[in-house]
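User: Predict Dephospho-CoA kinase's structure from this.
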Amino acid sequence: MLNRKKIILGIIGEIAAGKTTISDYLKKQYKATSFRFSDMLRDILNRLYLQKTRENMQKLSTLLRQNFGEDIMSKTILHDVQNAKSKFIITEGIRRPSDTLYLKELSNFYLIAINTKMRLRYERLIKRNENIGDKNKTWQEFRKESKQEAEQKIRKITKQADFIIDNNGSLKQLYKQINEIINKIE
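Assistant:
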């Protein structure tokens, strides 16, 4: 049974919107535990000795959902959340409505959406180089990826958010918004 004192924060945003930056801040400032939907995909790709490209992760996600149900990743994250000991728990990388299926039923779940301008997201993607091929991605390729199905679903889910963060400014401005949200829900 889930401990009522836990606060679960679902972080949603398009590619390079700042999800990991927010998650890292919450881990440092509030001793939060973080679970990324993409981590389970990276783990499987690692085990299969396949490159951890965005394309491979999308293919694997589709394969898992088609064969084990649209909610397979949501169920996995729910188990992770239930087993976590921290007061603050982050679920990062929500991309589809099914990703919040079980989490939304928890009274202490809050969905936080991140709004970031496309050009800024592109610059961050190149700089961080998280996935193979990111640093060489062209603006046109990035725009094409931003139009993919999962990214479009993110925009729809964002409308259900309890809080919206504007991540077009400085880190100081970002952290201030995060602290204000924590103060409201704590």
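The two ends are 21 Å apart (CA to CA).
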